[in-house]
Amino acid sequence: MSGSQFRSPVDAGRAQKTVELLQPLLTDLSDLALQLKHAHWNVRGALFLPIHEQLDRIVETVREAADEVAERIVTLGHPANGLAQAIAAESRLNPLRMQFLPSQEVIEALSARLDSVIQFLRVAIAATGELDPVSQDLLIGVAASLEKHLWMLQSQHL
Prior knowledge:
Helices cover 74% and strands 3% of the residues. With 158 residues, the protein is mainly α.
């Protein structure tokens, strides 16, 4: 095998089915990171500083998760699509409003989006158990991190 070739340890059929679960998650995670950053810049209100700082920590987790999912897609022998056009066209998340956002609205809106991604992750976790336990393990770790962030964000809701 030449140094430029890689053969996935997962058979082609299972790899394809796994990628069909992972790519939409990559799209949603990428969109979530962008929406979190948008809210980080535009949050206003009494909880501005703690939410502003907290959102940066969540963005870091989400970006790392997106990178891990993308690298898993590539490990399975497929290209990972993280292009802005694909994210805009294929994200399953509702967009945020383009304006300054009150802190309580940020908590509610981003909690809903985090929850959506977690629900998508849980579906993919169930489906990857038989297909690819390595991908399943990765998704379980991502879900655990996002669930913790969701709890911490919701704990600030008045």
